[in-house]
Amino acid sequence: MSSHASHDPVRDWAASGIPHLTGRSDGPPLIPPGRAATLARELGDWIREASNGAADIDGATLLAERAALTGHSRHGDLTPGGSGRLLPADDGWVAVSSARPDDPLLLGALIGREVTEDSVWPAVAEWTSQHTRADFDTRATLLGIAGGGVAHGDEIAGQARDALRPNGIPRSVDGLLVVDFSALWAGPLCAHLLGLAGARVVKIETPQRPDGARRGDQDFYRLLHGGHASVVLDPTLHVERAALERLVAAADIVIEASRPRALRGFGLRAEDFVASGTTWISITAAGRDSDRIGFGDDVAASAGLVTEDDAGLMFVGDAIADPLSGLTAAALAMCEPGPGRGALWDLSMRATVASTLGGPPPPPAYRDGDQWVVDTDSGTVPLDPPRARAGSADTAPSGRDTNSVLAGLGIIR
């Protein structure tokens, strides 16, 4: 993917809305380090070109789109949504998320003591202060806790080596069938962008694990899923498991955003379908060979995308690893794999973020009347607030289209 000369990191950050989500709640917005907003804008260019303008999006503004709908703002070492923390460790910092109902119990297991919802964060902070980042990473991975030690220095470059970028010839996905197993933000954003580009998207859920984003902001959910078919199949039932396999076999593109063992447990091996010509997009916290889990906030911070003041480290944006990875995934899906060939894209969210870091320190923001601005080499630039596109009125109730989708593909369950 070529870089565009017109893309300037400071200007791209300023236009993205992310600075308004970065910094202390009682302090100024901050320009983050690195060039993640520039990468997002370049990925948007690739998607626009591949779709012949059908998916006409500004990738940089997608980074803060959810906050524009939820109204979340910057809270320093707390995530904008309030479910994650940056905590000092014996040799640095760790980023920890507690967004799921069982997370307080898991965090209690991490530190070896019982905690309540009110006492969990002070207790975890005491434990992390006495342990290294590696101690946390090992125990968090074993327990399935979302979080990781914050990388710095050469560690960031080491993580970035696994980053993927679209290359070769962009391809149209108009008319292709996309089967989307993903949930939350990164995978659904990928599916949304492919849908804008003309693909037919079928969202797959199981009765046991519906998309947790259905419980979140409904405007955001509708934005990402409007126009997509919704199918629910139970892989514990032989007939529905067989229907699920035939549906995946019919797909041109498959999106998964869980560790590979989840779909392998349903008898679905990515390698088998790729060998038959399928493009398989695998989005994980740290790659298919890692057992680590993570959400967008803690993944970005652990990759090294943080900012700092005298009081310590702070998060950048709202779960920024999610939209950056979703944009990357869509662009990868729109790479021409070659005649009769499939592709398995092993997309590490952590590596994607780490690859954007480096470069000169960002300039400070200051007030100019009622507006926050920043100085660049080419003049003063205003910091735009987060903004969102109009979404669909379609609420896509779970399983709504199961029978019609299967019938349309000649699949009987």
TrEMBL record:
Q: Which domain of life is it from?
A: Bacteria
User: Which residues lie in Basic and acidic residues bias regions?
Assistant: 1-11
**Annotated Gene3D superfamilies:** Crotonobetainyl-coa:carnitine coa-transferase, domain 1
One MF annotation (Gene Ontology) recorded for this entry: transferase activity
Q: Where is this region: Disordered?
A: 1-31, 375-402
Q: Which PANTHER family match?
A: L-CARNITINE COA-TRANSFERASE, SUCCINYL-COA--D-CITRAMALATE COA-TRANSFERASE
Taxonomic lineage of this organism?
Answer: Bacteria, Bacillati, Actinomycetota, Actinomycetes, Mycobacteriales
Task: Provide this UniProt record's keywords sorted from A to Z.
Answer: Transferase
Q: Does the keyword Glycoprotein apply?
A: no
What name does the UniProt record give this protein?
Answer: CoA transferase
